[in-house]
Amino acid sequence: MTAWIIQQQRERRASDQLKEEDNGGDEGSDSGAGKEAGAAAVTGEEQGLATERPVPTLRVLTSTQPAVLAAANVVAAAVPECSVVAQSGLNPISRGSSGAAGSAAAITEDPLASMGFHERFPGGESFADLVRRLEPSLLDIEASTDPVLVMATSTPCRALRAYALNLPVVEVMGAASSSAATALANDTHCVVELMPKPAGGMTERVHYLN
């Protein structure tokens, strides 16, 4: 996971540098001084003298589960300029007595696919409850100008994906209808990357880690 994150940051940084070079070339075409400055910049880069831009900050939002927090700290130790914020809203949906170890419901088929939006696990939560407590995390993600990595179990990740892709929460909790939905429907270790499109909407890619 950490190697993929570092690579993504490097690619984003390289893309930003190319955009800056293109802008510099356009401005330089209006005057001789601009052309000379552009030529000097190219010469400096060829000689390895260009100043490298700092790596963009990575913001990691994680649940408060000990195993997830430990994984987030591994990422923070490996990725430069990384901050980790633990939020209880990213914890898995509470299944109440249905999720108790050894209970009949715990060893049968996952009931998520047949639940309604407001239907609640006995003594636990509904999808509506999950969405409500995810609102602070959503606001945090939308307000961030840096890359955000969410580290959590499947149910909160599926709900966040539903919001990003404008899909019904009940639909993404049910049968998997895409590669990303399949990846988030089981124990596959992966990163589902969501990137905004210039014209609106999101692109989605799955990066498998095992």
Model description:
With 210 residues, this protein is α/β, with parallel strands linked by helices. The chain folds into 2 domains: 1-54; 57-208, Phosphoglycerate mutase-like (Rossmann fold), CATH 3.40.50.1240. Helices cover 46% and strands 13% of the residues. The protein is built from 8 helices and 5 strands; from the N terminus they run H-H-E-H-E-H-H-E-H-H-H-E-E. It has helices at 2-28, 32-46, 66-78, 104-107, 127-143, 154-164, 169-173, 179-183, and strands spanning 58-62, 82-86, 148-151, 190-196, 202-208. The strands form 2 sheets. A 3-stranded parallel sheet has the order 2-1-3, with helices on one face. Helix 3 links the parallel strand 1 (58-62) and strand 2. Residues 1-7, 25-31, 33-50 and 100-108 have low confidence and may be disordered.
Which keywords apply here?
2 domains; 5 strands; 13% strand; three-stranded parallel sheet; alpha/beta; 210 residues; 8 helices; Rossmann fold; globular; two-stranded antiparallel ribbon; 46% helix; disordered N terminus
